[in-house]
Amino acid sequence: FPSHDSEGVKAGVPDIFLPVINKAEDRHGLFIEMKSGAGRPSETQKVWQKVLSEQGYHVSICRSVTEAVNVIKKYLGIK
To answer: CB of 72 within 8 A of CB of 64?
Structure first.
């Protein structure tokens, strides 16, 4: 994987991580990548998303705070 970026985090790793198991979906946690407008994931982000998904994590791309909240609520089973 790529090295750390200037902020000291791993390049390509999604922006938000919720370390909560979802037994109903058999997932170990939730990762969310925030994108604005028509922004698309970089190739590095696509690699991370694929690897995380293969490792049993739910991965979503959200374009607004409202969308991210809805993804989190759905993941947690909150109506």
So the answer is: no
Query: What is the residue-level pLDDT of the chain in tens, covering all 79 positions?
Result: 444 455 556 788 999 999 999 999 999 999 999 998 888 999 999 999 999 999 999 999 999 999 999 999 999 999 8
- Strand ranges (E), 1-79: 16-18, 30-34, 58-62
Residue tagged 């409202």 (tokens)? 66
Q: Is-contact 71 63, C-beta < 8 A?
A: no
pTM of the predicted model as reported, rounded to 2 decimal places: 0.84
Q: Specify whether the CB–CB gap between 40 and 32 falls below 8 A.
A: no
Are the C-beta atoms of 62 and 32 separated by less than 8 Å? yes
Distance separating alpha carbons of residues 71 and 28, to the nearest angstrom: 15
End-to-end CA distance of the chain: 37
